[in-house]
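Review form for a predicted model. The reviewer records the input and the model, then writes brief findings.
Reviewer: anonymous (R2)
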Amino acid sequence: MSAKDIIKQSVLELQNFVDTFTTDYALTALTVLLVALFVGFMINLIYTKFYRGVVYNRALSITLIGMTVITAAVTMAISTNIVISLGMVGALSIVRFRTAVKDPLDLLYLFWAITSGIIAGAKMYSLAGISWVIVFLVILIMSKTSFKGKVYIAIIHFTGDFTEDKIKIAMGRQKYRLKSKTTKKNLYELALEIYLKGDSMSFVEKMKEIQGVEDITVIQYDGEYYG
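Model under review:
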């Protein structure tokens, strides 16, 4: 059978499907979409529980549910007929998404929602459940083994050639990493990435007592610490 015959047969099957839409298919479609909705809701629940950012992204959490359901519907549509598949590919090829994803973990959740929708649309419910459990365990284990604490950026302005050495001594055993150093005539600026396990900032008081230190600014940010 040639490609032309396959397409012609698909067109006839599509017309027959439209003319003879059955209750059984409607129930099947409803089941698929409900499963996709449930899986998307569970993905959203994991995203909400393990979110590590400063401001919770509610729009993304809603997107995860909607994307799972929509992907399941698209998968059902393209799996029934080759004509619909070709039309869907052509329609999706002109879509351009320009929203920047700042957190790499957001890509994990988005891809998780898309693949779960595809699996649900293919009626592979067991695989959808098993994959959800496995990804959940991976996220849970990694969150338990990650560093417990907060990361800060300390911006220090000082004068004097030997003041930097005194600042390093004042840090003591506190974990830190030099991010940048700026020199403006007699004024210096240090940016240190500091990892704190608790809320104590005793190093700030020690630095304030150093002669030559003009000011200290400590900023908390949601970043990864590599020590």
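Findings: Residues 150-220 form a domain with the Alpha-Beta Plaits fold (CATH 3.30.70.60).
Further findings: The chain has eight helices and four strands.
Recommendation: see findings above.
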